Amino acid sequence: MDPAAMTRDVWRVDADAYPAGASVDEQIRFLLRYAVLAPSSHNSQPWEFVVGNGYVGVEAAEERRLSAADPDGRELHLGLGCAVETLRIAAHRFGVGCVVHTFDEGPTVARIDLGPACNPHRDGRLFDEITERYTDHRPFDGPPVSEAVLDDLREHAASLDVALRSVDDADARESVGDLQRRADRLQADSPAYRRELAAWIGSGALGASGLRARVGRAVVTHLDVGPVEGRRNAKLIADAPTLCVLSTADDTRGERVNAGRAYQRIALAASAEGLATHPLSQILERPAERRSLRSVLGIDGRPQHLFRVGAVEGRQEHTPRWPADAVTSTAR
Ligand SMILES: Cc1cc2nc3c(=O)[nH]c(=O)nc-3n(C[C@H](O)[C@H](O)[C@H](O)COP(=O)(O)O)c2cc1C
């Protein structure tokens, strides 16, 4: 895929343009304009949508796999989950019911069957945030997220069999910060990891985010950025108003997709409260550090996603995307 074809214009979707009277196929293609606004690791947009008669199959885009950062595709499947949930929320907004199926084997990772009309008001609050949400890399201010909001976020996760845990204890935060420092250093020690990150930064996918401004040039010029990133990220963890971990009972492909679906619901719900979110994946990318996170926090299941939540003044620019048409084909 040509990086030059990525654009920020995708964020301007006009809900009034929904083709209510058109064919289901045209409606699906309109809804996919929302799905591509989902977050994904390195903004790799690892989705391919296959449109059939009343359904959308979601497959992994092999050429956009992060083979160094995410060799077993765990983050990829979270990203697919984010897109699946965005599509589902958009469909509900226009009164189209959906049933989501996930598959642990085979090229189709998830299938969304569009069904009979549903109450269009369900998830309306989340829908409004699809074109607003973004990942904020800056330090967050303000008090911890209120218990009421946290309960709401927990419910979004629980509805998908995903557990949300907030890490409040100072000692636990410090241990997570130590793990982050180690994971950042080890990841940056890998030339393949640095090359892959540099390629995505160079493609413009990460936009003018803090990452690009901070480490973009340094990564490309092979400076030793791990310790710098590690210290900065450990401080972000220590100072985060709220730090959350999502976990699942086991580590199947379907559970990873559901963890991604849960994260997108949470990011949208947080955005509706004027809160920003920021994932930190390096610990989870390293099997030993991921196991340590599990034992440090006493998590029964498998940790899937670590992220900060908090308030911050002003907005960051949206990152670009390949338009929906470029990642959509028709089922044969
Ligand atoms: C599974 C997953 C892992 C991510 N890991 C990180 C991370 O480690 N560090 C980071 O700064 N952002 C991380 N992100 C955020 C992405 O970089 C971001 O979603 C992407 O660049 C698109 O930008 P947007 O979220 O502003 O639309 C992650 C997102 C997902 C879905």
TrEMBL record:
UniProt xrefs under Gene3D superfamilies: NADH Oxidase
Matching InterPro entries: Nitroreductase (IPR029479), Nitroreductase-like (IPR000415), Nitroreductase/BluB (IPR050627)
Region (Disordered): 313-332
Pfam families named in the record: Nitroreductase (PF00881)
Annotated ranges, domain Nitroreductase: 138-310
A Gene Ontology molecular function term of the record: oxidoreductase activity
Keywords for this protein: Flavoprotein, FMN, Oxidoreductase
PANTHER family registered for this protein in UniProt: IODOTYROSINE DEIODINASE 1, NADPH NITROREDUCTASE
Identification of the protein by name: Acg family FMN-binding oxidoreductase
Species for this entry: Halobaculum lipolyticum
